Amino acid sequence: MTAVEAVRWSARQDAVDIIDQRRLPAELVRRELHTVADVCDAIATLAVRGAPAIGIAGAMGLVVALATHEDDAREPFLDAVRVLSERIGAVRPTAVNLPWAMERMRRIARTTAGDGRTILGALHREATQILEEDRAMCRRIGEHGLALLPANARVLTHCNAGALATGGIGTALAPIYLAVEQGRRVIVFADETRPLLQGSRLTAWELSQAGIDVTVLADNMAASLMRDRAIDLVIVGADRIVANGDVANKIGTYALALAARHHGVPFYVAAPWSTVDPATPAGRDIAIEHRDADEIREWCGTRIAPAGVAVYNPAFDVTPAEFISAIITDRGIVRPPYCFVADRHAGSGEV
């Protein structure tokens, strides 16, 4: 099955080519990012979004931004790597993939012998490797998650954790893509995901493009569907999974987990191993991004709340580990009790 490509190299390999997700679903527009300002703006404004995709875009964008330094000697070039990677890595603080990708690129720069041009070549290869690894990772998540989908599965998802959020076929949507590829029937219910409607604008768009049965609902309708036994399972993505198994994901995920627990619906999180952050002990320690108040006060330039009214607009919430049935990773399925430590995990499960 062919999925959309959210992020890739430009034809000349000198820019980051993204789908501008702010323009969906009305029009499909690709945009090239040529400078560090372009990259930071695209990530900040959600032109490119999704934890894996912004990690990829950040790595590729660092290479693009460093092109003007390729004639530098080694030490000035490494200084530029540090400054630019820190700038890109700070744009969105909650998703762990962005700082993870920046640290991976800094490590390659430090350990590559030679001048700026030589190091830049190594960084280009590493960014390409991050993209290719992500594509393979998505498929492995899909393969592991397939076992959790019953026949004629009715799946509820939140936000967008599909091809638009990654370099491949997605995380939460990967098992769905592979099930349909095998000829199985899957019905997807996509929360619209207020306030920026990533579910209705993005998930519904990409699934429709792939010919997959998808129904959009307002976020506050999900619990009623569960009560009516119309949902078999919930699968969502993640922006950060911490040591005790708590998960930061798009705002509204926590409410879904509560409703799923009450109604006996399995609640799964799908994410690459790079999203695991064993250095952060628990969800209360995660830095949650708060976004501009006008994302709530306005929609498409129309005022929908009184000017100047106070607004609470966190981009993410934290779902406690106790509400998560299992975490689907590219290394396998991890089941509770969760205990993630550096580059391995402890806990019962299939990994």
Explain briefly what this protein structure is.
This protein is α/β, with parallel strands linked by helices. Helices cover 36% and strands 19% of the residues. The longest helix has 30 residues, at 116-145.
Walk me through this protein's architecture.
With 351 residues, the protein is α/β, with parallel strands linked by helices. Helices cover 36% and strands 19% of the residues. The protein contains 10 helices and 18 strands. Helix 7 (198-209) links the parallel strand 5 and strand 6. Helix 2 (51-65) packs parallel to helix 4 (97-111), helix 2 runs antiparallel to helix 5 and helix 5 crosses helix 6 (174-181). The chain is globular. The two termini are 27 Å apart.
CATH architecture of the largest domain: 3-Layer(aba) Sandwich
Percent helix, as a range, is 25-40%
Query: What letter string, H or E per element, gives the SSE order?
Result: EEEHHHHHEHEHEHEEEHEEHEEEEEEE
Give the name of the CATH superfamily of the largest domain.
Answer: Translation initiation factor eif-2b, domain 2
- Give me the count of strands: 18
Give the overall silhouette.
Answer: globular
Strand fraction = 15-25%
Could you say which structural class the secondary elements and strand pairing correspond to? alpha/beta
CATH domain class of the largest domain: Alpha Beta
Assign the CATH topology of the largest domain. Answer: Rossmann fold
**Low confidence ranges:** 344-351
Largest sheet: 7 strands, mixed
Strand order of the largest sheet: 6-5-4-7-10-15-16
Number of domain units: 2
User: What is the number of helices?
Assistant: 10
Q: What's the overall average pLDDT, rounded? A: 94
Taking all Cα atoms into account, the compactness measure Rg is 20 Å
What is the rounded distance between the termini? 27 Å
